[in-house]
Specification:
This protein is an alpha/beta fold. The protein is 37% helix and 26% strand. The strands form 2 sheets. Strands 6-7-8-3-9-10 form a 6-stranded mixed sheet, with helices on both faces. A 4-stranded antiparallel sheet has the order 2-1-4-5, covered by helices on one side. Helix 3 runs parallel beside helix 6, helix 4 runs antiparallel to helix 6 and helix 6 packs parallel to helix 7. The N and C termini lie far apart (38 Å). 41% of the residues are buried. Bound molecules: adenosine-5'-triphosphate (ATP). Pfam families: ABC_tran. GO terms for molecular function: ATP binding; ATP hydrolysis activity; branched-chain amino acid transmembrane transporter activity.
């Protein structure tokens, strides 16, 4: 049984339909990438999986439980965490406070001390900077806080939106090292990326979204060598 099973999912904003009949699965411990061009619907897909956008059709099952249409706060309790595009930290609160606030759920509260320890083990720089205001960190460090905050909710699956957006190349590789470290703890990760090359290099499997539909899917390796992917998304012939 997959950890996450999405069948025939459609969603949008009012009359504007964005996703049309998405089918995908995520197994426990996998890194699954969702890639595609700007505006293809990747962010909308993550928002729908995390309960921010309500589906208009289809189902989402988490560990074989139908969680379709549940609100974001309920899905956090069930173990779906979202690391949003643009990080959305509280810039005037300390790193530690940003992490503590993430543990508001019944699920996460009792494990706060353990979660902080684990986050600082993964990201030693965040321990050094734990009293620093989050808004004063570099972009890459802020992205690490955002990832750590997602983990502090003690999720079954971490949904990560555009983790490399706006970061300098050296920071992108550090953030990807961080994602590899998170994966190595056994965490299941769904990664939405416009940076297709990076995403495919880490993904066990990937889906290409075009105009709200899954156009292609396969292992990260298969898609890296797929001719269309190379031409359209990687700029290679
Ligand atoms: P990006 O990486 O640029 O976010 P994306 O593949 O994640 O691209 P989405 O952000 O999901 O794409 O956007 C898909 C479509 O939905 C776009 O046409 C966009 O204009 C539209 N859209 C996104 N957010 C909203 C919103 N809040 N209200 C109405 N339309 C929206």
């Amino acid at each position: 049984m997959p950890l996450l099973e999405v069948s025939n999912l459609s969603a949008g904003y009012g009359d504007a339909e964005v996703l049309f009949g998405i089918d995908l699965t995520v197994d426990r411990g996998e890194v699954v990438a969702i890639v595609g061009s700007n505006g293809a619907g990747k962010t909308t897909l993550l928002r729908t999986l995390s309960g921010i956008v309500t589906p208009t059709a289809g189902t989402v099952r988490l560990m074989d439980e139908d969680v379709t249409g549940l609100h974001a706060h309920t899905l956090v309790e069930k173990g779906i965490a979202m690391v949003p595009e643009g990080r959305r930290l509280f810039p005037r609160l300390s790193v530690r406070r940003n992490l503590e606030i993430a543990a508001y759920s019944k699920r996460a509260r009792p494990k706060l001390a353990e979660s902080l320890r684990a986050a600082y083990e993964l990201f030693p720089i965040l321990q050094e900077r734990s009293d620093q205001l989050a808004g004063t960190l570099s972009g890459g460090q802020q992205q690490m806080v955002a990832l750590a905050r997602g983990l502090t909710t003690t999720p079954e699956v971490l949904l990560v939106d555009e983790v490399s957006l706006g970061l300098a190349p050296v920071m992108v590789s550090r953030v990807y090292d961080a994602i590899r470290a998170i994966r190595d703890t056994g965490m299941t990760i769904v990664l939405v990326e416009q940076n297709v090359g990076q995403a495919l290099s880490i993904a066990d499997r990937a889906y290409v979204v075009q105009q709200g539909r899954i156009a292609l899917s396969g292992s990260g390796k298969e898609l890296q060598s797929n001719e269309e992917v190379r031409r359209v998304y990687l700029g290679l012939e």
